[in-house]
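Lecture 7 notes: from sequence to structure.

We start with a single chain of 180 residues. Read the sequence below before looking at the structure.
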Amino acid sequence: NWKFKINFNGVYIKFTQIEEAEDKEWTDPIAGCGNKTYLNQLFAKLQERVIARGTTFSILYISAELNKPELAKFPIDFHNHWLREIAGIIFNTANVTRRLVSKQDKSCFLAYLQNNEYCLVMEGEDHLIDQSANLIKDKIANNTRWFGNAPNLHVTIGSASATSNSVSNTDPNEIFLQAK
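Now the structure, written as tokens:
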């Protein structure tokens, strides 16, 4: 029984170390969510799952409008903080997972691309895409407690969906451009 506990703890610690290393490799230091590497790796796995299940997925392409004149007076560090706050709102609103979830459930993951742009990928949620986009927009627009007492921030959101029939040979960048 002792040997089992020691071995189990060793395996658990090893998996935890692997996840921590992946999190460092996959996390964008500015926005605090996934980065392009994370997006590309999970997207490839998601494509396989969508084809195997015969389901769909949707993408929300979210652009934070941080280049407005009233925000120009704030230092760049404030902009970075707002990007993290926006990612947090998206995380909580869309029930984002950090990894693909079990085979029975649906995954939803978020990545920061660049230039104040995020990509939210939602498995099997194409019928909720407009509702999700509006909910995210509303929560961001109605937030009155931005870092540094910034005025209300806003986002624009584009969307695209793909089915198991259309995703097999699709380059992820093509789908991102459709959503943009």
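The chain is about 50% helix and 20% strand. Keep this in mind for problem set 3.
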